[in-house]
Amino acid sequence: EVHLLESGGDLVQPGGSLRLSCAASGFTFSSLTMSWVRQAPGKGLEWVSTVAGSNGDTHYADSVRGRFTISRDNSKNTLYLQMNSLRVEDTAVYYCAKDRWGSSGWFKDYWGQGTLVTVSS
Amino acid sequence: DIQMTQSPSTLSASVGDRVTITCRASQSISSWLAWYQQKPGKAPNLLIYKVSSLESGVPSRFSGSGSETEFTLTISSLKPDDFATYYCQQYNSLPPTFGQGTKLEIK
Question: Alpha-carbon distance B3 to A111, whole Å?
């Protein structure tokens, strides 16, 4: 059974940093693409970043490029999101998601329960 | 970026009703569209991919159709468990983008 467990969410001041983790189990983590998707309070879903399983290529939303870094440790079956220069508008629940390749791109077939990041002074 | 627009934003319906949610893309996305269901305080759950392919374990009362820029999610006969928010997502090109969501409420 696929299981994704996020951690690391916290209250942080604007300009601060935070690292989110996502522990994965139940599938061959090293070969599969993984993503982070966020949801601001009362709002919709926003894709944040993706790291490919095959070659480690990374992709970022314009809103976080240059501030956030996605990475993975295949030996630990863990996905990370390093978040720097945090802004109030980064406040959201951050979901880790397992991607499935759909010929042209990825859709998310499993999601973690989410971890809340609050950016406020 | 490809914009995804869902309608309606809110839909009120009763148990047993047949309901349809529409998702429009700002440009052609061929058949690369997924639908998710999200309940309050929970993570989204994949329902449908490639427009009409039902994810394993998803009840057959859910179905999807469409192509290019216009797509629909239909629930043939609403169950109490179906009242939730639904999102479409295109995966034709990066960045993947979601619709703003359709909240399905009990009438």
Answer: 23
Which residues of chain B make contact with A113, given a CB cutoff of 8 A?
42-43
Q: Taking CB atoms and an 8 Å limit, are A59 and B95 in contact across chains?
A: yes
Distant-in-sequence contacts of B53-57, Cβ < 8 A, 24+ apart: B55/A109
Other beta carbons within 10 angstroms of residue B16's beta carbon come to: 9
Give the model's confidence band at A29: pLDDT under 50 very low, under 70 low, under 90 confident, else very high.
Answer: very high
Quote the CA–CA distance of A96 and A79 in Å, as a whole number.
Answer: 8
Q: Is the pLDDT of residue A104 over 90?
A: no
Could you tell me how many residues make up chain A?
121
Q: How far apart are CA A5 and CA A24, in angstroms?
A: 7
B38 CB neighbours in chain A (<8 A) are 45
pLDDT tens profile A52-97? 987 889 999 999 999 999 999 999 999 999 999 999 999 999 999 9
3-state secondary structure of A6: strand
Alpha-carbon gap: B34 to the closest alpha carbon of chain A (Å): 7
Residue B93 per-residue DSSP state? S
